[in-house]
Design the sequence.
């Protein structure tokens, strides 16, 4: 259950199972900025309409591999919008690279969002648990 | 002599000792007193409270007059001022007892997305201009004081 107003990350399915390489993951956050259609401040984002974020963003995932350092991989952003049914909550749909090496044990990957220009708006990171297929 | 003295709950209160008959606590203020001064004739004391109120106390009777009520204070801001984003404000008196928000950004109302007078989640107005620093004012209508903070809005600053 997603709390109605939350400033921290919560990932659907996060506690049910880890994500797998190539899978689409829905992330919820705030601060993606303006959207492509008007909505009143304080209004719950209505369903049935899509409010797409207009600020270009890039996303990457950093894999921490014990003994091997880190691996930094760009992520495909499929969808960035306001999450319906909430106030000021953004939804970000990303596809995990299929090239992530499936592992028997769950590994932590830290995901960052950022703008390439200017590069000053990098997000904090969130952790996605990625397991093997 | 005027001084601060911890009450039984260790909250500093204003106390007086003027004739050798012992100390007498003059205030009973939630949050305590941060500063105090005795007037020139010694018959009145003035106290500034931790919650931003200004009090005048009759030293003989202990009668207290509120010169200025508690003020709104923002002590911590979490998140960036991005149009439409959620920011968290921590402080004191951020909303009135009837839920009226006492914080504005550039004269625009922020939307209360939950919380209480000491910690609020607010939505930054979608209309907030990006061209200049946003002036955030925290004030209650009946207070002589307000807190003014400035933030540079950003077009996006994702926060998980």
Sequence:
């Amino acid at each position: 259950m997603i709390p109605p107003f939350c400033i921290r990350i919560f990932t659907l399915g996060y506690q049910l199972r880890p994500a797998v390489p190539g899978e689409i993951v829905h992330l919820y956050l705030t601060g993606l900025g303006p959207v492509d259609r008007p909505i009143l401040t304080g209004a719950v984002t209505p369903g049935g309409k899509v409010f797409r974020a207009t600020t270009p963003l890039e996303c990457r995932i950093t894999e921490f591999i014990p003994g091997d350092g880190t691996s930094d991989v760009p992520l495909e952003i499929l969808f960035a919008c306001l999450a319906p049914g909430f106030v000021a909550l953004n939804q970000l749909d990303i596809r995990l690279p299929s090239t992530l090496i499936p592992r028997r044990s769950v590994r932590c990957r830290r995901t960052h969002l950022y703008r390439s220009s200017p590069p000053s708006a990098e997000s904090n990171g969130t952790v996605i648990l990625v397991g093997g297929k | 002599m005027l001084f601060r003295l911890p009450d039984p709950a260790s909250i500093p209160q204003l106390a007086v000792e003027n004739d050798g008959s012992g100390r007498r606590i003059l205030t009973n203020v939630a949050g305590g007193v941060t500063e105090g001064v005795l007037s020139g004739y010694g018959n009145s004391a003035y106290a500034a409270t931790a919650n931003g109120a200004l009090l005048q106390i009759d030293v003989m009777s202990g009668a207290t007059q509120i010169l200025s009520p508690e003020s709104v204070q923002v002590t911590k801001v979490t998140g960036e001022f991005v149009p439409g984003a959620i920011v968290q404000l921590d402080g004191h008196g951020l909303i009135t007892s009837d839920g009226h928000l006492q914080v504005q950004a550039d004269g625009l109302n922020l939307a209360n997305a939950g919380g209480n007078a000491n910690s609020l989640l607010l939505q930054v107005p979608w209309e907030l201009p990006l061209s200049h620093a946003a002036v955030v004012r925290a004030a209650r209508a009946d207070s002589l004081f307000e807190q003014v903070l400035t933030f540079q809005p950003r077009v996006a600053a994702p926060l998980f």
About this structure: The beta strands of chain A are 10-11, 24-29, 58-65, 69-82, 90-95, 107-114, 126-130.
